[in-house]
Design a protein that fits this description.
CATH architecture of the largest domain: Alpha-Beta Barrel
CATH superfamily of the largest domain: Metal-dependent hydrolases
Radius of gyration: 22 Å
Strand content: 15-25%
Number of strands: 17
Number of domains: 2
Distance between the termini: 61 Å
Shape: globular
Strand order of the largest sheet: 3-2-1-4-15-16-17
CATH topology of the largest domain: TIM Barrel
CATH class of the largest domain: Alpha Beta
Bound molecules: zinc ion
Largest sheet: 7 strands, mixed
């Protein structure tokens, strides 16, 4: 591949006019174009080349049946070449992993996981309740034999059992992550998913309820422990007010099932509606934490939580929102390249363009180091050396009639859409604090308190 400009996944700027040689799915050389060199197989001499993007947190099979085979092409078309599950129904994960590995379905490299483990009382029906040490070992054996990349300890697994899981999973080379900073940081877990997920401990919140502001001890613990934190900026749809490029894009219009597309339009609409001011503040608070952790030397990694957020486009929302609220474009891109690879234990192999790395490459139109939106303008993608154009990825779906909406409601109404708009009272705030709300797995922001409250 000949690149007019190459960003290697870590540096501050571009290398100009380079040839990238790939053999058997591996990059073997990255060198200046030689005079008289033969014509390249892929000519991107008037384009920018980046490493393929990594999404460390998603769940293909939560609502996955509604997507059928469309997720793989859609992730690739938006530049994601590595996709890591943090919890899926395990036999569906295996089916998808085999389909992707065999090439029967085009898509990213897929690092799978099974059902998260929880305490005796599970948060969601598909999770595995753990009652005893003996049962825990049966679950861990299942994780070993089915090859989980990561095991998610959800919210209620007792710490003593979590330590047992960590010891055994380390031997198997499987990561263990949770939603918590503490006690996870003491136990030695690999990462904290979300800037502040639901909490069942009654302590150890990483964010305040005042739209996600964070105290310095959280930043220090994350930066010094080596635990990664995933971005999962689920409320960043303020960005749709500035630009609807991801909504109008042919990749979105062609590969989204019709009901997902309708949900996306509704989400964009809500960006100007009641509650949007609070969501904006919430995103700002999240990014404030992430930026402080990153600049203190911590490991911030891009995670989408799709399809709870929108498949494909959410990775770009997780790059754009940080830039809007203080990251430089290079800092944001690193979260989905070198940082993410490091978090997955694949530093030097994924998320970088250098000899020895897997040949995961994007050809984009524009200058993403100046304009982060250009990272989404993917035209061609290599994953493990296999080449796809966006046109080829869309071709099987182009011209198909729109899918009928499913019989069941695809997406629950999220607060504040479910309640009458208007400033909430103190009683509303207390009520919110007592009752879980929001889409599965994620806590919605609290009502915006009036100054007089
Ligand atoms: Zn999740």
């Amino acid at each position: 591949m000949r690149a007019g400009a190459l960003w290697d996944g870590t540096g501050e700027g571009y290398r100009r006019d380079v040839d990238i040689t790939v053999e058997d799915g591996v990059i073997t050389s990255v060198a200046p174009v030689r005079r008289g060199a033969p014509a390249p197989t892929v000519d991107a001499s008037d384009r920018t080349v980046l490493p393929g993007l990594v999404d460390v947190h998603n769940h293909w099979h939560l609502r996955g049946r509604q997507w059928a085979g469309r997720q793989g092409p859609l992730w690739l078309a938006y530049g994601v070449t590595t996709s890591r599950s943090t919890g899926d129904p395990v036999y569906r994960m295996l089916e998808t992993r085999e389909a992707l590995r065999s090439g029967a379905v085009p898509g990213p490299r897929y690092l799978g996981s099974g059902e998260p483990l929880d305490g005796a009382r599970v948060r969601f029906g598909f999770m595995r309740p753990v009652h005893s040490r003996a049962q825990l070992h049966r679950e861990l054996r299942r994780a070993e034999e089915l090859g989980y990349h990561v095991l998610k300890s959800y919210q209620r697994l007792p710490v003593a059992l979590e330590r047992v899981a960590l010891r055994r999973m380390r031997r198997a080379g499987t990561q263990v992550v949770s939603h918590y900073l503490y006690p996870a940081v003491g136990t030695g877990l690999n990462g904290m998913e979300h800037t502040g997920g639901e909490n069942r401990l009654g302590y150890s919140r990483t964010l305040s309820y005042a739209a996600g502001r964070t105290a310095e001890d959280t930043v220090t613990l994350l930066a010094r422990s080596g635990m990664y934190v995933s971005t999962t900026l689920l409320f960043a749809y303020e960005l749709y007010l500035d630009s609807r490029d991801l909504i109008e894009d042919p990749r979105t219009r062609t590969l989204f099932p019709s009901w997902e597309y309708a949900a996306l339009l509704a989400r964009a609409e809500a960006a100007a509606g009641p509650g949007s001011e609070l969501d904006r503040a919430w995103t700002e608070g999240d990014v404030d934490l992430l930026l402080r952790v990153q600049r203190a030397g911590g490991l911030v990694v891009a995670g989408t939580d799709a399809p709870l957020d929108f498949v494909g486009i959410s990775v770009h929302q997780n790059l754009r929102a940080p830039v809007r609220h203080g990251f430089t474009p290079v800092e944001a891109l690193r979260t989905a390249t070198a940082n993410a690879a490091e978090a997955l234990g694949a530093a030097g192999t994924l998320g970088v363009v250098r000899p020895g790395a897997r040949a995961d490459l994007l050809v984009v139109d524009g200058d993403p180091l100046r304009d982060i939106a250009a990272a989404a303008r993917v035209e061609q993608v290599l994953v493990d050396g296999y080449h796809h154009t966006v046109r080829e990825l869309l071709a099987p779906y182009a011209g198909l009639p729109q899918e009928p909406a499913p019989a069941t409601a695809p997406r629950p109404a999220r607060w504040p859409d479910a309640v009458a708009p208007g400033p909430p009272s103190r009683a509303d705030m207390i009520d919110w604090c007592r009752q879980p709300r929001g889409p599965p797995g994620h806590f919605a922001p609290p009502p915006h308190p009036r100054p007089t409250d």
